[in-house]
Amino acid sequence: MQLFPCPFCGPRDETEFHYGGEAGNVRPDGTDVPIDRWANYLYMRGNPKGTTREIWVHMNCSEFFVMERDTVTHKVLSSTALSGEHAA
Predict the structure, then answer these.
(1) Which residue numbers in the chain have pLDDT < 70?
(2) pTM here?
(3) What is the per-residue pLDDT for 84?
(4) CATH number of the domain residue 13 falls in
(5) Which helix (H) or strand (E) holds 87?
(6) How many domains are contained in the chain?
(7) Going by C-beta distance under 8 Å and a sequence separation of 6 or more, which residues neighbour residue 31?
(8) Distance (Å, rounded) from C-alpha 69 to C-alpha 46?
(9) DSSP labels for 10-71?
(10) What CA–CA distance (Å, rounded) separates 13 from 23?
């Protein structure tokens, strides 16, 4: 079992959280978007070895945040409340 730091509630059990996706996966704008761009947005994911930034939601307080963690060691480096500049 692992403890994840919610920026709103403090350290909590990992079972209280839900993965929301990679931070920076920006939805294409407009109705005239090429199909390959939509496919990249929907299906192509990085699988980095090392530090990564991800969107998570704490199911108890329903708040979204960005967690930076190491995918090799599972060490959480930071967690920050989600706002417009953190999503990209």
Answers:
(1) 84-88
(2) 0.81
(3) 52
(4) 3.30.2270.10
(5) helix 84-87
(6) 1
(7) none
(8) 14
(9) EEEEGGGEEEEEETT-PPPPSS---HHHHHHHHH-----SSEEEEEEEETTTTEEEEEEEET
(10) 22
